[in-house]
Predict the 3D structure of the following.
Amino acid sequence: MLWLFGSLLLLGTAVQGEPVERREPGWLLNQVFPNPTGENGIEDFLVAAETLGANRGYQRLQQLDAEKRVTLQDKRRAIASCKAVLTRVRVGLARKNFLLRENVDWNTPLIELGHYRQLARLLYTEQEVHFADGRERQAIGSFQDGYRLGQVIEQKLLLAGLVGKACRALSVSPLARRLDQLDYEECKYLRKVCEELLEHQSDLADIITGEIVIAQDFLARAREDDFVDLLQAAAPTLEDDADDPERDALYERMTKHPELFEQDARRVGTVLREFHRQLLAELEKPFWERSLPEPEQIDDSSWASAILEALIPSWSIAFEQFCAEHARLQLLAVHAAILEYRWMYGSTPEDLSRLNLGDLVTDPFTGKPLIYKRLDDYRYKLYSAGPNKEDDGGNSDSDVVLVQGM
């Protein structure tokens, strides 16, 4: 029964990253912020994103990439043509305020999220070019900017959080492949950058609070309006799946007796408030002590059950993914510290305690040290136990692995 309410929510919150028709300059900024302040870093990102969307050099790069025939020279040309875009992104990152759009509800089209991801891809490409041209310190700067971009856009909503996570993953990827290219000073600098970024990592509290607002808005609108009107938004989905008797029966009951939705809405609101309270309480604990609460069960045959299922995202997956992202950033910092040690002493450390990194080596999934295996003076393995909290030998299907052996 998730189809119905899920489709309603997705109509309002889909990430629209596809190319759009040509519009008036400033359309993206004006749609998200009708009254821009000039002091909000998010506003700079929107201006940069709109400029990037109109950049012929970047459009050409995307086309070549889709055709799998892009070259390093193509990337260099695209980055050279996007200097103004990159400058505007960095102006935004240098600001103190990062305020996302206000008054977001279940029907808000978050068109900006796909554009943020394009900015992250641009920084990813810039990082690749810097590494290819031997500018490792500048490449670390591109990583830092891409990762920070992902952090500041993930406020308020789980969907924004997942897009932010994707941006951060993009920024880590080229650097993880080029760690052996860094010298002692660059390893030291990278570790410092990672430690600073870890101070800004999301704890999901803001996202959970935002999702509470979205759910409450949906229930409030359903009470105030004729609920049948809201159902019309799902009409295309209803027509696409004509062979679902359970769906058809639910839709018929809702349209014939919309007044019964009020009592179900009250039940759902009560369950949601308690469930979200428990979620926020779990965030007060260290990563490895958190457990996902289960919402109170409602009779599966009721409308309330369908509503509740639709309004509760898959928080178990979200918790694991955000914890894994935190672990990857820690792994990157510890990799940098190990390589720093190897430059200084000519061999890898016997164990992580030699690095004096404190809590940085604590695996967020277990509360124990990250798994480190010294193979010889030069090579080693480093990884997190991952969601199953078991050492599976660095298997990337279960452990969180940044680099498959160094």
Notes: Residues 315-345 form the longest helix (31 residues). The radius of gyration is 24 Å. The mean pLDDT is 85. The chain is about 60% helix and 5% strand.
